[in-house]
Amino acid sequence: MEIKGEDYQVAYDPETATLICEGALRLRGASGYEDIVKLFNEVADQKPSAITLDLKGLRFLNSSGINALSKFVINVRNKKACELVIRGTNQYPWQGKSLRNFQRLMPALKLELE
Amino acid sequence: MPEIFGDFVEIGEAHEYLVINFSPNSMPIQQRWRNNGLSADFLADYWGTFFPDEGHSTQNRQAEIKSAVSYIANELLENAMKFSNHKSNHAISIGLYLFRESLIFYSTNSLKPKNIEQFKGFIRQLLTEDLDELYIRQLESNADNEDGLSSLGFLTMLNDYEARLAWKFETVQQDPKIVTVTTMATLPV
Q1: Å from B142 to nearest chain A CA?
Q2: How many Cβ pairs closer than 8 A exist between chain A and B?
C-alpha cells in the first residue's frame, strides 16, 4: 500500500507492520490528509502486536499533518491492542520539538530519535 | 482604531528584512497551496545565510533556525490563504525582520467578515489559557471531529517553537468594509 504526492510518499510494509512517511507533508487541512488517515486506520484495525511509524525521511510536517498523526496515535491508544513505536531523527529539528507531544497523548508510546 | 491582542509592536528598524507580497484572486486556492511551501522554504534558506556554519554547534543552530522559519512561515501563509477575504482584492504579505535577539514575522491578510469574531475568541483563549493543556485538549477534541479546522498552527508555534504571538486588527476600508489582521510572531534566535 502506497500513497504518493508531488513531494511525499507514505507506504505500509505489512511484514514489519511499519508505516513509512517520507518527504514534505504540507497538505491542505483535514481533507488533504483523508487518504493517509484512512491507510493509518486500516493498519490500526488489523491490530498487529506492534506498529512502527517511521518518520526518519520526513523533513517537514505542517500542523494539519500533526493533527492527522495525532488522530492515529489516539486511535491506536484507544484500541489498547498494539504497541506503537515512532522512529525519527534529530537531523530534522521539527521532530525533536513536535513528536514528544504524542507521548503525552499515549504515555506507552516509544519515541526513538536518532 | 486598530484592535490589538497581545504585545503587538509596530515594525521597527531592522538591520535586515525581507518582505514578500502575494497578489490575491489570481488562482484557485488548491493550485496556490504548493506556493506556501515554496515560499516558506525560500524564506528559511534566505535567513539561514545570517546564521552561518561555524563548527558543529552553530551548524545545529542554523538547521534549527531554518526549520523554525520554514514551519512558522508555512503556517502563517496557510492561515493567510485560508482566511483571506477573496472578494477584497487585498494582497497577502509576509515579512521577516532580524533583530539582535529575535526574528520577527509579520503576516497580513484580509478576513472574511463571518470569521472575525470566532478568530478573536480563539486568540483570547491563546492569551489566557494554559497553552500546554490547551494543545493536548485540542488534539483530543480534533480526534473526535472529522472536519473543521485543527487550530494547531498557532498552538504549535507557541508550544513547540517558543514563539510569541500578537495580533492587530484594522478596518482598512469602510464601504464595503474590509478588515485585515496582522499576525506578529517573535522567534528567539
Answers
A1: 7
A2: 77
Q: What is the pLDDT of residues B129-163, one digit of tens each?
A: 999 999 999 999 998 877 667 889 999 999 999 99
Residue-wise pLDDT tens digits, B10-30 = 998 888 999 999 987 778 888
Nearby residues of B141 by Cβ (< 8 Å), 6 or more positions away:
none
Q: Residue B57 — very low, low, confident or very high, per pLDDT cuts 50/70/90?
A: low
Find residues 92-131 of chain B whose CB sits inside 8 Å of chain A: none
DSSP, res B119: H
Q: Determine what percent of chain A falls in helix, strand and coil, rounding each to the nearest 5.
A: 40, 35, 25
According to the 3-state scheme, what is the secondary structure of A10-58?
EEEECCCCEEEEEEEECCCHHHHCHHHHHHHHHHHHCCCCEEEEEEEEE
